[in-house]
Amino acid sequence: MPVRITRLLSVALISAGISTVVLAAATQSLTWRGDAVTANGVVRGMAKAWQSAGHGNMEIQQFNTASGLDAVASGAADIAGTARGSSGSSVDSGLTFTPVAWDGLVLITSPSNSVSSLTLQQVHDIYYGKITNWKEVGGNDAPMDVFAVASPGDGVEFSLRKLLFGRGSQPVAAPRLYVNTIQLEQSIALDPRGFGVTTLSSVAGNPKIKMLHIDGTAPSVSSVASGAYPLFIELYLVTNASSPNAAAAKDFVDFTQSPKGDAVLRSHSLVPYQAGSALIAMDASRRGRILAEVGAHASAEPTQIASASPAARPVMPAAAAVASAAAARANTPALSAVTGAVVAAPEPSSLKGVRGDAFTEASAGSHGSDFAKVTADVYVTYGKVVAKATTKAAKTAESTTKKVEAKKIASAASARTYRVGAGETLYSIARKHGVDVAQIRSWNHLKDNTVRTGQVLRIEAR
């Protein structure tokens, strides 16, 4: 009997072991990396539904398009997400792009802006630098603050430029650059002169954002689904057939096209890809019509879109974007005068309190078809990190520093002075006083565009 019991227990333990292995395989964990639009519109809700259906969990690493594609190509992630198809680059060519949903590109501004509708021609001309003031499109007499995402090959920016200019790598006249669409949306909500692009799924129902009509048609799920709204695009999940988790990744992609997946997509103001057969049929003619309307034509993309390292710091995508724009200028005669430079502030020991920003400074009369003399800078500012003096020597040094600063201020009595407030940047200070950033740097002998809270700046009249 004891022998029989022992054998039965052995069989039971072996069976339990097999069950454990099968369960582990069925609940395999996957890693996703990509842009904010696909993360929030598709992946977060889909991952919860996937797990609830008895599958594994999903680690979501939201950053940008380039980092996601790089990660899947290198094996650091199993699935990427993007709002654009393959660009034909060496990284993209080895990956599988599966369209899972239809979304709408929406041009946005602050709710306090009086402009409610634009034509496709006007949108084209704004990004091309021909329209620079809101009064030119029926709004107030105020300059446009055109914002863009700096990441090279960003899905949203790439798709819009592909529709308006015939190629996704087209440089545009965007004065301020952000790491992703989330940061862009937050800035536009606070700026009545702001203008930029995101997606319907990202801002639908957001009272802090105003979505502009295009040629009189409002962006909505129904107008995207019917094709009445012209700026519809696909959202993609990207996989690598050579990945160790390729089978599980494919299962997740297939799940997005199941009835449960469809429900998740619709709950985020997306149209499931299978429900957009009419959009597939009209896509080519739609693209041709838009290009004809704005006076552009399709052209080949550069062979390589710059990629962003997964470990890149927040300001790096802007640097890569400037480099990408410079590379594209050779194929764009109208942009031959565009130049760019990046200035990075000294890196602090901690990133707490760091604020990233970017701007483009254009000389008077430089707007128009040639973008003459446009220059770009990227800069960061740090919060005040001065600790209280705890020793006699420290107090003496602090006192000496204050005296030196006082003498500098006294010697500049004929000029105005300004104390930097929390969250302010050199760009915002320059705009507030109606001067150029370069002038403030010269007056204060600044080596870069870094300013600190509490710092006193000399501001001279023009």
General description of the model:
- With 462 residues, this protein is an alpha/beta fold.
- Among the domains are: 27-102 and 236-275, 3-Layer(aba) Sandwich (D-Maltodextrin-Binding Protein, domain 2); 392-459, Roll (Membrane-bound Lytic Murein Transglycosylase D, Chain A).
- 39% of the residues lie in helices and 18% in strands.
- It is built from 16 helices and 16 strands.
- Strands 1, 2, 3, 4, 6, 7, 8, 9, 11 and 12 form a ten-stranded mixed sheet that branches. A two-stranded parallel ribbon has the order 5-10. It has a two-stranded antiparallel ribbon with strand order 13-14.
- Strand 1, helix 2 (36-52) and strand 2 (58-62) form a beta-alpha-beta unit.
- Helix 2 (36-52) packs across helix 11.
- The chain is globular and about 70 Å long.
- The protein starts with a helix and ends with a strand.
- Mean pLDDT is 76; it is low at 1-26, 306-395 and 408-414.
What's this model, at a glance?
By secondary structure, the chain is α/β, with parallel strands linked by helices. Helix content is 39%, strand content 18%.
Which helices and strands occur, and which strands form pairs?
Layout: H1 2-26, E1 30-34, H2 36-52, E2 58-62, H3 65-74, E3 79-82, H4 90-93, E4 96-109, E5 117-118, H5 120-128, E6 145-149, H6 155-165, E7 176-178, H7 181-190, E8 194-199, H8 200-203, E9 210-211, E10 213-214, H9 221-226, E11 232-239, H10 246-255, H11 259-267, E12 271-272, H12 277-294, H13 316-328, E13 355-362, E14 374-381, H14 392-411, E15 416-419, H15 426-433, H16 437-443, E16 456-459
Parallel strand pairs: 1-2, 1-3, 5-10, 6-7, 6-8
Antiparallel strand pairs: 3-11, 4-8, 4-9, 4-11, 4-12, 13-14, 15-16
Helix pairs in contact: 2-11
